[in-house]
Amino acid sequence: SSLSGTAMVIVMVMASLVVERSVAIDLCGMTQAELNECLPAVSKNNPTSPSLLCCNALKHADYTCLCGYKNSPWLGSFGVDPKLASSLPKECDLTNAPTC
Q1: Burial of 89 (0-12, 13-18, 19+ CB in 10 A)
Q2: What is the pLDDT of residues 77-87, one digit of tens each?
Q3: Contact at 8 Å (CB) between 78 and 17?
Q4: Domain 4-91 - what CATH class?
Q5: How far apart are CA 63 and CA 44, in angstroms?
Q6: Which of 10, 15, 41, 45 measures 20 to 30 Å from 57, CA to CA?
């Protein structure tokens, strides 16, 4: 779907932040905590439904910025399920989320 690119970008950015856990980051309009909040919803191991905090954070994300991470090779190396990532905007009922 057209939202799948957006979801993948979000997940790639979240995965990149795992490396920087010791540094406070505000990236693409989302804090490190907000990005990390979405990670369990796209995990290959025991995924959960996206939390309200995750979905609320996605509502104010800078998608133009996030799309800059679209081709990051890190997705798989952080245990992220691409199918779950693709469905994240839908799971959060973000029908108006911009796409990459």
Answers
A1: buried
A2: 777 776 776 67
A3: no
A4: mainly alpha
A5: 24
A6: 45
